[in-house]
Design goal:
- With about 200 residues, the chain is α/β, with parallel strands linked by helices.
- The chain has a single domain, classed as Rossmann fold.
- The chain has six helices and seven strands, in the order H-H-E-H-E-E-H-E-H-E-H-E-E.
- It is globular and about 40 Å long.
- The N and C termini lie far apart (about 40 Å).
- The model has no long low-confidence stretch (mean pLDDT about 90).
Length: about 200
């Protein structure tokens, strides 16, 4: 089965004014594991085009905040969101915190980062694993004790290694494939609850 660009969730996202169908993945994850709350500060990695930020914005409310980072432009503009176009490998997060006067650690770090896919499944899986480890490293540095973590990974031989890394750093660890994931996709999500800082 191939990727369907105009499936039910893509049409639903357009009707509900979300930037992408991926919003429903985060919604499913959040409803199942209860990760996001009012007034939270959330770091969103791989945030473009911005649908996860849109969902998070509604949950955290006016006193919450989302820091979104992506190589590509983030299309949405939110009064409680900060959009950063940058390579996470190169950006100095502490400089960003200082610039925007962020004085607390994140309540949650969420990552929808994915590599540009190639014709080689094993290369794509390896690149996905590298991005996931980068996301986890960011969480370990900037997540507050008992904070939460969500990360997309492509299924492959490194995926369970990554799950075990999350399990080592969080009191609870889950793997989940949302219903809104396309049938042709090899992705799933690793969820870590209650960071053991």
């Amino acid at each position: 089965m191939s990727y369907k660009p105009n499936d039910f969730y893509a049409q639903k996202a357009r009707k509900e004014n979300f930037a992408a169908r991926s919003v429903y993945k985060l919604e499913e994850i959040d409803r199942k594991y209860k990760l996001l709350k009012k007034d939270f500060f959330v770091i969103d990695l791989g945030a473009s085009p911005g649908s996860w930020m849109q969902y998070t914005s509604k949950i955290v409310g006016d006193n919450g905040m989302i820091l979104g980072i992506d190589l590509k432009p983030i299309e949405v503009k939110l009064k409680n969101g900060i959009n950063i176009q940058a390579d996470l490998n190169e950006v100095n997060m502490q400089v960003l915190f200082d610039k925007y006067k962020i004085e607390k650690k994140a309540d949650a770090v969420v990552s929808d980062m994915a590599p540009n896919t190639s014709s080689n499944r094993f290369t794509d899986q390896a690149r996905s694993f590298e991005l996931c480890m980068l996301a986890l490293d960011t969480a370990k540095k900037f997540l507050k004790p008992r904070g939460h973590f969500v990360c997309k990974i492509f299924d492959g031989e490194d995926a369970m290694t990554f799950r075990d890394e999350v399990k080592n750093n969080f009191e609870e660890c889950y793997t989940f494939r949302p219903k809104s994931t396309q049938a042709s996709s090899k992705e799933f999500f690793v969820v870590g609850k209650y960071y053991k800082a």
